[in-house]
Amino acid sequence: MTELLRVDHIESSYGASQVLFGISLDVGVGEVVTLLGKNGMGKTTTIRSIMGIMKPNSGNIYFKGKQINGEPSFKVAQAGIGLVPEGRQIFPNLSVYANLVATAANRRNDSDPWTIDKIFDLFPALADRQLNAGNQLSGGEQQMLAISRALMTNPDLLILDEATEGLAPLVRDDIWRVLEELKNFGQSILVIDKNVEALTKIANKHYIIEKGMVVWSGSSKELSGDDDIQHRYLGV
Description:
By secondary structure, the chain is of the alpha/beta class. Helix content is 36%, strand content 25%. The protein contains ten helices and twelve strands. The protein has helices at 43-50, 73-79, 96-102, 116-122, 124-128, 139-151, 169-185, 196-202, 220-224, 227-234; strands at 3-11, 13-14, 17-18, 23-28, 32-36, 58-63, 66-67, 81-84, 157-161, 188-192, 205-210, 213-219. Strand 11 and strand 12 (213-219) form a beta hairpin. The longest helix is centred in the C-terminal third of the chain and has 17 residues, at 169-185. The two termini are 31 Å apart. The relative contact order is 0.18. The mean pLDDT is 94.
């Protein structure tokens, strides 16, 4: 499988406080990969380092064969990485429609890019709410909008930080449905979430982080069959 993203032994800090200690992972074209671990172990810091929101102290990050660590976040996004951040961070005063078109782009000149109509087919609830402001949506609808906004940039890689955190069970199921559909479309995805059962149904491989280090990696079959790993590192 062709490599899309490679994170190579990065170390990152907040001031004098080091958080990541040699994190390495990779995502292939068309793969769904998870980043797992308990709260405070460095998952979001890894995403922030990939996205250029913070610069690693050492190590390298490669995307489509090009080194991107040290690039500003807008350059990383333009390179083809779409982020669904923790907390959604949609534009609260813009309508659903305006949120979707605000950052829309087709930099790769895809012959069949994401459009408003395709987004509304994926998330019919957003079609019904397209004239509503972002702050008038439920939490679940805001997450749908955050995913859709990222897709409208037509990314090579979609990253979701806490994909279903705080969402109602029916909404979580809808998010998992969409991620499975995206995988079937060939979309590469890196996802953080705590729902191991759902993730093992759609992901190709998993990385578990403990105290800023990768302590385990493997396939969905390996993770599903290892209760000790799930209990020790994920609290399942």
